[in-house]
């Protein structure tokens, strides 16, 4: 596969992974808050709610992370090529910054104070940013393979 | 299975109830009101209307708006949903001339709902007193509640909101977020409030577990206190309020977050009072009244809930104390309805929610 489709696939997989993780994180933090208020939380309820959020909430987060990643990931790729020793740190920070920016933008534009429930606390915001970091790391991993495969080798030039 | 059967039977009852179109006419009574929020009827035939931007206006008996707003109002915090909200007359207004106002107080970083009263003398407010400020102050400009009703003993119930970001606090009896509170008319706490004497509980609390209660009506004839509240996406509720009850938000709800996330896996739990009905998808109920006029005999004793999102008024039939179906009225106006009141002349009055808001009067067409 040539580099552009592979990069696009890497981007989509990064969005998908970040959104799935963020959805699971959103569900578990919310259920923990309800449990602290005294609500029973057996495993079947926990699993069922997680699945419903994957269908209902993950698409919303996918939209937000796509917006953030569209700027952050190409920029991180470019920086990583110039600073190979910092490659993984760059992707971790880029993913986190992308989600933080997308959340801040959403909160500024939405009529409610905080759009995503998990984003109401510093712990929750950091958790969502960490999901973005994992997604960005996946993009960095797949992007590195693209670079290795598309660079001409010494044997090619002979 | 039993629940499903019961729901089907209830649904069939609602569907089979004939929805008769009323023969009404909607008149423009007053115009030029900036996001009007509440209307109250003075004994002399005039009316008071609050504008969310912080003005209290006098409407003459012929519908003309006094160009000068009532002087003496406090400065409200005005942003998004925040501003001047309710106006209500004291049950003994003819004797004491007290009127009650609610408004958002504070700044964007620290604000909440405040209740105050003042006497209306020569179209100015005098003897202004702050009676109550919901605690804690919180950031943002959403979910203030702000409606008032008076109970049979002339105590006052005030609806509040959870501030949007603090939904779990609706279950915390130590503060006023997501509560309905009951006060004496001088702001003191009635000693028979349900949580008085309970360690760590706010004594003003009358009921808890609410999201954003923007409608409340006390039916003196049947000694029932009805309220409605906004759900998130779905889960708007009509509740029968009883002292000390917990109405469940956010532990049990028919609504989900605007993001599509679940607020709770539960629609009911032991110890939580379920709504009389819920509106899913949301209609955004903004005001509640009960019709006791004589000009629409068919409407006698029915509840009317104004809606913002549906741009209508929901007529909720009440027969022998039971809900007996709904009718959607005034959709043809296409306007967000902020307030609905049963006027002393038997007409139904509506306030439309926009910068060029109007006071509309609904009368029989003949």
Features:
heterodimer; A: 158 residues; mainly alpha; disordered C terminus; B: 366 residues; mainly beta; 2 helices; disordered N terminus
Descriptive notes:
The complex is a heterodimer of chains A (158) and B (366). Chain A is an all-alpha fold. Chain A has one domain (3-148). Chain A has helices at residues 3-36, 43-56, 58-82, 87-109, 122-150, 154-157. Mean pLDDT of chain A is 92; it is low at 153-158. Chain B has 366 residues and is mainly beta. Chain B starts with a helix and ends with a strand. Chain B has 2 helices and 23 strands. Chain A binds chain B through residues 23, 26-27, 30-31, 33-34, 36-39, 45, 48-49, 52-53, 55-57, 59-61, 110-117, 120, and chain B through 80, 139-142, 163-165, 167-168, 171, 250-251, 256-266, 269.
Overall average pLDDT of chain A? 92
Q: Using DSSP, what is the number of strands of chain A?
A: 0
Q: Mind telling me the C-alpha Rg of chain A?
A: 18 Å
Oligomer: heterodimer
SSE map:
The complex is a heterodimer of chains A (158) and B (366).
Chain A: H1 3-36, H2 43-56, H3 58-82, H4 87-109, H5 122-150, H6 154-157
Helix pairs in contact in A: 1-2, 1-3, 1-5, 3-4, 3-5, 4-5
Chain B: H1 2-16, E1 24-33, E2 36-41, E3 47-51, E4 55-59, E5 84-89, H2 93-96, E6 98-106, E7 111-121, E8 124-133, E9 148-150, E10 156-159, E11 179-183, E12 205-208, E13 213-219, E14 224-229, E15 236-241, E16 277-279, E17 285-290, E18 303-307, E19 312-319, E20 322-329, E21 337-342, E22 348-352, E23 357-364
Antiparallel strand pairs in B: 1-23, 2-3, 3-4, 5-6, 6-7, 7-8, 9-10, 10-11, 11-12, 13-14, 14-15, 15-16, 17-18, 18-19, 19-20, 21-22, 22-23
């Amino acid at each position: 596969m040539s580099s552009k489709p592979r990069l696009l696939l890497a981007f989509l997989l990064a969005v998908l992974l970040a959104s799935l993780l963020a959805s699971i994180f959103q569900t578990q933090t919310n259920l923990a808050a309800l449990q602290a208020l005294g609500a029973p939380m057996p495993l079947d309820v926990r699993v069922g709610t997680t699945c419903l959020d994957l269908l209902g909430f993950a698409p919303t987060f996918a939209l937000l992370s796509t917006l953030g990643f569209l700027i952050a990931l190409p920029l991180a790729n470019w920086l990583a090529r110039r600073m190979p020793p910092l490659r993984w740190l760059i992707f971790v920070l880029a993913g986190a910054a992308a989600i933080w920016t997308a959340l801040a933008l959403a909160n500024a534009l939405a009529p409610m104070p905080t759009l995503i429930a998990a984003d109401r606390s510093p712990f929750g915001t950091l958790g969502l940013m960490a999901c973005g970091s994992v997604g960005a790391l996946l993009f960095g991993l797949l992007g590195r393979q693209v670079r290795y495969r598309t660079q001409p080798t010494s044997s090619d030039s002979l | 299975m039993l629940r499903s059967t019961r729901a089907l039977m209830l649904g069939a009852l609602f569907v089979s109830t004939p929805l008769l179109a009323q023969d009404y006419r909607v008149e423009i009574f007053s115009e030029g009101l900036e996001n009007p929020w509440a209307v109250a009827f003075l004994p002399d035939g005039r009316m008071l209307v609050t504008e969310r931007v912080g003005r209290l206006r006098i409407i003459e008996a012929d519908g003309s708006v006094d160009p000068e707003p009532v002087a003496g109002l406090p400065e409200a915090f005005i942003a998004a949903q925040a501003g001047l909200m309710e106006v209500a007359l004291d049950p003994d207004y003819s004797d004491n001339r007290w009127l009650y106002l609610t408004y958002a107080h504070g700044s964007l970083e620290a604000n909440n709902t405040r209740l105050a009263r003042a006497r209306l003398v020569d179209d100015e407010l005098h003897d202004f007193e702050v009676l109550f400020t919901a605690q804690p102050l919180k950031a943002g400009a959403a979910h203030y509640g702000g409606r008032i009703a008076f109970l049979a003993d002339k105590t006052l119930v005030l609806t509040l909101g959870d501030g949007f970001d603090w939904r779990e606090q609706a279950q915390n009896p130590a503060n006023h977020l997501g509560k309905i509170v009951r006060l004496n008319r001088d702001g003191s706490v009635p000693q028979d409030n349900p949580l008085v004497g309970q360690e760590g509980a706010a004594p003003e609390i009358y009921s808890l577990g609410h999201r954003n209660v923007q409608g409340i009506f006390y039916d003196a004839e049947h000694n029932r206190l009805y309220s409605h509240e906004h759900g998130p996406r779905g889960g708007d509720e009509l509740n029968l309020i009883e002292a000390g009850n917990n109405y469940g938000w956010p532990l049990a709800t028919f609504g989900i977050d605007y993001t599509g996330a679940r607020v709770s896996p539960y629609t009911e739990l032991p110890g939580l009072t379920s709504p009389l009905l819920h509106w899913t998808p949301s209609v955004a109920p903004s005001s509640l009244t009960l019709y006791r006029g004589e000009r629409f005999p068919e409407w006698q004793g029915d509840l009317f809930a104004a809606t913002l999102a549906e741009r209508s008024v929901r007529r909720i039939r009440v027969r022998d104390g039971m809900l007996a179906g709904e009718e959607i009225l005034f959709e043809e106006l296409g306007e967000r309805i902020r307030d609905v009141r049963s006027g002393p002349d038997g007409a139904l009055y509506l306030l439309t929610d926009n910068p060029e808001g109007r006071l509309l009067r609904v009368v029989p067409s003949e």
